[in-house]
Every structure is written in structure tokens, then in C-alpha cells.
Design a protein that fits this description.
The complex is a heterodimer of chains A (about 140) and B (about 400). With about 140 residues, chain A is mainly β. Chain A has one domain: OB fold (Dihydrolipoamide Acetyltransferase, E2P), CATH 2.40.50.840. Helix content of chain A is about 5%, strand content about 35%. In chain A, β1 and β2 form a beta hairpin. Chain A is globular and about 45 Å long. Chain A starts with 16 loop residues before the first helix and ends with a strand. In chain A, about 35% of the residues are buried. In chain B, α7 crosses α11. Chain B is built from 14 helices and nine strands. In chain B, the strands form three sheets. Chain B has a four-stranded mixed β-sheet, sandwiched between helices. In chain B, strands 2-1-3 form a three-stranded parallel β-sheet, sandwiched between helices. With about 400 residues, chain B is of the alpha/beta class. Classes of the chains: A mainly beta (about 140), B alpha/beta (about 400). The interface between A and B is large, with 51 and 52 residues.
């Protein structure tokens, strides 16, 4: 029997539901403005560049760079017991949008700003998949 | 662009109005509805979202710092914004506050709005029970953070510190110089919580919390309170203390987010400082003493840069040079600050800023001949900044 998942799960805004649905299918989807074609994240109704409210969901290449990151040595939630230290990072995708996630598959002391990474998907429960990032 | 002013301004007007779909509107949050109404109001006025630099709003009260959430969605930075919690009076107050903000030169175009989703909340339970992920009845939104183990203010500010280290070669030893300098000040303050000396070695040996921050990068957890009385300059002349004049103030809130553009290394203090300096008619070289909001060491460093006490990227060398000492080029956090005196959300730093200009301290704590002081406030979701410039004349 698989141990129960003890970490928080996302409680999405309606506007974010396409993102989480796509994650389940192992696809990283972001919004693209219908007018100026700027890619954006997190999900919103309004384009921050031009104010347009029409947009579409497009698949990201899944490649990007670590814009900045932090390493948790202190436990803030029991779900991470036994998993310290771990890295939380802001990833700048090739399309320009930034997304918060984890950098995994690398010792924490090897993570640096601007290092190239690619998305990997973790099916954490039957219904939730988290996009994380691994060194490219 | 805003133009801060020292005199009262002309009256303002409402130039556009709009509303969202009304009644039963499933599939959109209160925030989405608010965006819709704001878009319609802008269209009515013939304006674009890029014209907006002020935001006053209210919405579901369980959403902390609602104006930041709305501003992030709209993708705007503002020079004045707040969430009002005055219940039903909030919306009228919001318009009044917009007039005051514009008269004061804090914003040039203010969006005032209120969104709610009560029908959906009441009628969504069955639907929610069918949702595999399950949403609590409050329909609280929580995503892009806790599920990745991202918690707390330490981590948020540590992101900025990390990027600053990468871009400019700033070191942990330089952050440590800030902790050490403020501890020295605290030792001359009998009311300070921290009573022991702190060396750079002590700092480096402190346990890591959220790297690059260790224990001594983090402010204290304390009880405490502070207060000041503000009155007219005319009235102040007849009172007991030497008046400390409010020469200028400024605000700047980078609502587009700490992770957006260069906000984590180029903070709201850049514009808040410009505004305050312009209103006061002074510049960074005129400041004799500074009280800088020090929730974490890095925030002192980046604000000193952004207020123009040194150039961008040179904050590390600057703080390690002794500049923050009582005899330094800009004596800073002369009470010990939140890192070594006590953490009362910046209020004690206003008190210290005033007292330095009243000239009430003994020589071991008093900045000699101080005539002009700067006090900064920083907070919210790491992106709000306010600035006060005080003077003896």
C-alpha cells in the first residue's frame, strides 16, 4: 500500500484549471495573449503587457532557466519531514513567463541562478500532478 | 508618471464606470469578476490598463492583501494602492481616498473596485463534492506555492538575496556586516532585546533557515508597540518638543510581483524614494540618519541602493565599509532595528527617526547634528514600500 500524500495540494482559481488539467496529462500549458502574443503565468484574465482579455492556452517547451532559488533547511510543514534540504525556484521559461516550482534530481548545493532546466512531471496523487524541474 | 506636490490639489472626477456580469455567474472567481468590471470601466473612460497607477479595492475578505492579488492579475505596478477593511463603508471611502491620493500626488489614475461571488459560494457545494481535488466550502484559492513547499517571508526575501548575489557578487559576509552594525547600535539602547555582542564569526556560524539566509539574517519575534502624534506645523510650534517636520513621503508598490521583471533586486524603494525626495526637496546626500525596514539583512542592502545612498550593485561593499555606524556616512537603524532592538512592523523605526531629530539621546546614540532623516517601510507580499522624510526645519 502506498503511503498517503501529506503535502498540501493546489486549490486552483477557476482561471488556473486548464493548467492543472494539462499537468495531469504531463503537458506544461501557459497563456498566450490573443493581441500581443505575450506568454504569461500565473493565469489571469488580463494581459499585463497590453490589457487584452482574450487569450489561448499553449504548450510550453518545458525548458527554461533558474531565475532565482532558495534552499529550505527549516521545516515549515510536516509533509517535508525527512526531505530537508530542498530547493524552491522561480523558473523563467523559454517563452518568457516565470513559474514557481522545485528543482530536483541534483544536490542542493549544485543549483545556481541561470542554470538550464527542463520540466518533469510528478504524479503526486491520482488527481494531481506537479510540474517540477530537472537539470537539462 | 506622478508629480508629487506640497500644496493641495484641484478636485478630481469619476471618468468611467463599468460592471461585470451580474446574478448567477458560475465558472469565474470574485477576482475574475472584478477584472471584468474594471476593464469595462476603463473602456467607458477610454483608458487602457497601462494608464493605471493606483488601485483601491475590496473583495472576499479572506484574501490577504487583496489589492496585490488583483494588481498581479492586471499586471500593473502602482504608486498608491491599498485594501480597505471598513466593511460596507469601504467603497465610498475608496473614492474619497482616491481623491486624496491624487491630490497628494501619490497616483495619477486610480481604479476603485469591489468583487464578490456569493451566489457561487452558496450554490457550489454539490459541484464541489464531485470535484476530485475537493475544494473547501470557503473556495479558498491556494496554488503555485505551498504545494512546492514554498512557505513564509524568509524564503520570499531570500529569493531576492540570491539573485542579488548572482548579479552583483554580493556575499553572505556582507549581509553579516549589517547584522553586526545593528547589534552595535542595540548595545547602546537599553530597551533593545538583544544584549550580547555579535561578531561576523557568530553570524557565519548561525544555523541556516532558508538559504542564503541564516539565523542572524532574520529579524526578531517580539511583543511591542510604538506610536507618534502628528499635527499641523503651526500647532506644533507651541508644543513641548522641538517639532520634527514631515518634509515628504512616497509610496510605490510593485504589484506585478516579487518574481516579475527585476523587482526582487530593484525594489519599490526606487520610486518611493524619488517621490519622497521630490516632495521634500532633498536628495540622498542631504540625509543625516536613516531607519530602514530590516525584516531581513538583504532588504537593508537593497533599499540603501534603491534610495541612492550607493549605486545599484555596490550595496555589499557599502555596508561592509562601516557606512552604517554612528560615525559612518549614513548612520542606519540607530536603535538596533528589527534585527536587534525589536520587531514592531516598522513602527519603532518611525519613533527612532523622530527622536534622532528631537536630539534627545546621549552622544553614544545621538547622530551629531542630525537635521534630516529618512524612514522606510516595506512589506505586504514583499513588494510594498513607503518612505518618510523628516526634518528639524
Amino acid at each position: 500500500m502506498v503511503a498517503p500524500y501529506k503535502k498540501p495540494l493546489p486549490l486552483p482559481a477557476h482561471e488556473s484549471e486548464p493548467f492543472w488539467e494539462a499537468s495531469k496529462k504531463h503537458r506544461l500549458m501557459i497563456q498566450k495573449c490573443a493581441a500581443c502574443e505575450t506568454h504569461r503565468f500565473p493565469p489571469s484574465v488580463t494581459c499585463a503587457k497590453c490589457g487584452e482579455t482574450n487569450s489561448s492556452w499553449v504548450e510550453s517547451s518545458g525548458r527554461g532557466k533558474v531565475f532565482s532559488f532558495v534552499t529550505f533547511y527549516r521545516l515549515y510543514h510536516k509533509g517535508w519531514e525527512g526531505e530537508l534540504p530542498y530547493v524552491v525556484a522561480v523558473i523563467e521559461l523559454e517563452e518568457g513567463a516565470r513559474i514557481l516550482s522545485n528543482v530536483i534530481d541534483i544536490p542542493v548545493e549544485k543549483v545556481v541562478c541561470d542554470m538550464p532546466v527542463k520540466v518533469v512531471f510528478e504524479d503526486v496523487t491520482e488527481n494531481v500532478t506537479l510540474p517540477k524541474f530537472s537539470p537539462l | 508618471m506622478i508629480e508629487p506636490s506640497t500644496h493641495l490639489r484641484n478636485k478630481c472626477a469619476v471618468v468611467g464606470a463599468g460592471h461585470s456580469r451580474l446574478g448567477k455567474v458560475p465558472g469565474v472567481s470574485a477576482l475574475g469578476l472584478l477584472e471584468e468590471a474594471m476593464k469595462n470601466a476603463l473602456d467607458d473612460a477610454g483608458l487602457n490598463i497601462t494608464d493605471v497607477d493606483g488601485l483601491i479595492c475590496r473583495g472576499p475578505d479572506e484574501i490577504y492583501t487583496l489589492h496585490q492579488v488583483v494588481g498581479e492579475r492586471l499586471g500593473i505596478n502602482t504608486t498608491f494602492s491599498t485594501t480597505l477593511t471598513n466593511g460596507g463603508a469601504s467603497q465610498v471611502l475608496g473614492v474619497a481616498l482616491a481623491v486624496m491620493a491624487i491630490d497628494a500626488g501619490m497616483a495619477s489614475c486610480v481604479l476603485v473596485g469591489y468583487g464578490r461571488d456569493n451566489w457561487s459560494r452558496v450554490h457550489a457545494n454539490n459541484e464541489n463534492h464531485l470535484r476530485a481535488s475537493g475544494r473547501p466550502q470557503t473556495m479558498e484559492i491556494s496554488e503555485f506555492g505551498p504545494e512546492f513547499g514554498y512557505f513564509g517571508a524568509v524564503a520570499a526575501h531570500a529569493f531576492g538575496a540570491q539573485r542579488h548575489m548572482h548579479d552583483f557578487g554580493t556575499t553572505r559576509e556582507q549581509f553579516g556586516a549589517i547584522s553586526v552594525a545593528f547589534r552595535k547600535h542595540a548595545l547602546n539602547n537599553p530597551d533593545a532585546v538583544m544584549k550580547k555582542t555579535l561578531s561576523l564569526e557568530d553570524y557565519m556560524e548561525g544555523r541556516m533557515i532558508v538559504a542564503p539566509f541564516g539565523l542572524y539574517d532574520c529579524s526578531l519575534q517580539t511583543d511591542g508597540a510604538g506610536a507618534v502624534v502628528v499635527t499641523s506645523a503651526e500647532r506644533a510650534k507651541d508644543l513641548r518638543q522641538r517639532p520634527v517636520y514631515i518634509k515628504g513621503f512616497g509610496t510605490c508598490n510593485n504589484l506585478s510581483g516579487w518574481f516579475h521583471e527585476r523587482n526582487m533586486t530593484h525594489t519599490g524603494a526606487i520610486q518611493a524614494g524619488k517621490t519622497a525626495y521630490a516632495m521634500a526637496g532633498v536628495g540622498p546626500r542631504d540625509i543625516d540618519v536613516a531607519q530602514i525596514y530590516d525584516c531581513f539583512t538583504y532588504m537593508v542592502l537593497v533599499q540603501l541602493e534603491d534610495y541612492g545612498f550607493c549605486r545599484k550593485g555596490e550595496g555589499g561593499d557599502f555596508v561592509a565599509s562601516g557606512a552604517l555606524d554612528l560615525e559612518g556616512s549614513i548612520p542606519t537603524n540607530t536603535s538596533g532595528g528589527q534585527l536587534s532592538e525589536a520587531h514592531v512592523e516598522g513602527m519603532l523605526q518611525v519613533v527612532e527617526g523622530v527622536r534622532q531629530l528631537q536630539g534627545v539621546y546621549e552622544p553614544d546614540r545621538q547622530v551629531k547634528g542630525a537635521e534630516i532623516g529618512l524612514v522606510s517601510g516595506h512589506g505586504g507580499n514583499t513588494v510594498c514600500e513607503s518612505t518618510l522624510i523628516l526634518g528639524t526645519s
